[in-house]
Amino acid sequence: MKRIALLLMLAGTTVWAQEHAEPAKEGHEAAAHEGSDPTLPAKWVNFAILASGLGFLAIKFGGPALKGQQQQILDKMSQASRRAEAAKVQADEMDKRISGLQVEVDAIRKKAATELAAEAARLEKETEQLLAKVEQTAEQEIASSAKFATQQLKATAAKLALDLASQKIRSRMTAGTQGVLVDRFTQHLGDSSELRG
């Protein structure tokens, strides 16, 4: 409401200044020939009214708008400052992590070397155990094969000896020798049956 009243007052003052400037126009033309402008004070009044109206509008509407913009700018600057500080904190944290990264890499390498050495020792031990087991199995198989071969050899030798003895006996055996052997055998059978009875 106050704004409307103020605007009406400014408009009325401008109209009043123009009305007073109209009659002076005729005199102005006459005075223009003389070198002075009789409407100059009315022009100054119009200028003052216009300047005060513009100043009032600038103060009334421009000031708060500028203050609002200024506040927004300040808020954005403070947000930017907070973001810059947060970014700096993050950058510092990343620097700490990167500097600590070399320590972590060294620790991982050391751990990996230890684990690799333990794994190599375990594999070497397992290999030795497997080789010992293979050697033991091979020795057992060799002993078993040797025993089997010995038995086969003895069996073959016994068979050959029997075959040889059989051949010798056949070559020496005559009909008379066979009769003597049969007689002895039957006599031996008779003696053993008497002993049993």
UniProtKB/TrEMBL annotation:
Keyword Transmembrane: yes
Assigned GO CC terms: endomembrane system; plasma membrane; proton-transporting ATP synthase complex
Record keywords, A-Z: ATP synthesis, Cell membrane, CF(0), Coiled coil, Hydrogen ion transport, Ion transport, Membrane, Signal, Transmembrane, Transmembrane helix, Transport
Gene Ontology MF: a single term: proton-transporting ATP synthase activity, rotational mechanism
Record InterPro entries: ATP_synth_b/b'su_bac/chlpt
Membrane topology qualifier: Single-pass membrane protein
Residues in the signal sequence: 1-17
Coiled-coil spans in chain: 77-140
Subcellular locations according to the entry: Cell membrane; Endomembrane system
Pfam families xref list: ATP-synt_B (PF00430)
Subunit organization: F-type ATPases have 2 components, F(1) - the catalytic core - and F(0) - the membrane proton channel. F(1) has five subunits: alpha(3), beta(3), gamma(1), delta(1), epsilon(1). F(0) has three main subunits: a(1), b(2) and c(10-14). The alpha and beta chains form an alternating ring which encloses part of the gamma chain. F(1) is attached to F(0) by a central stalk formed by the gamma and epsilon chains, while a peripheral stalk is formed by the delta and b chains.
Family as reported in the entry's similarity comment: Belongs to the ATPase B chain family.
Function comment: F(1)F(0) ATP synthase produces ATP from ADP in the presence of a proton or sodium gradient. F-type ATPases consist of two structural domains, F(1) containing the extramembraneous catalytic core and F(0) containing the membrane proton channel, linked together by a central stalk and a peripheral stalk. During catalysis, ATP synthesis in the catalytic domain of F(1) is coupled via a rotary mechanism of the central stalk subunits to proton translocation.
Protein name in the entry: ATP synthase subunit b
Species of provenance: Paludibaculum fermentans
Taxonomic classification: Bacteria, Pseudomonadati, Acidobacteriota, Terriglobia, Bryobacterales
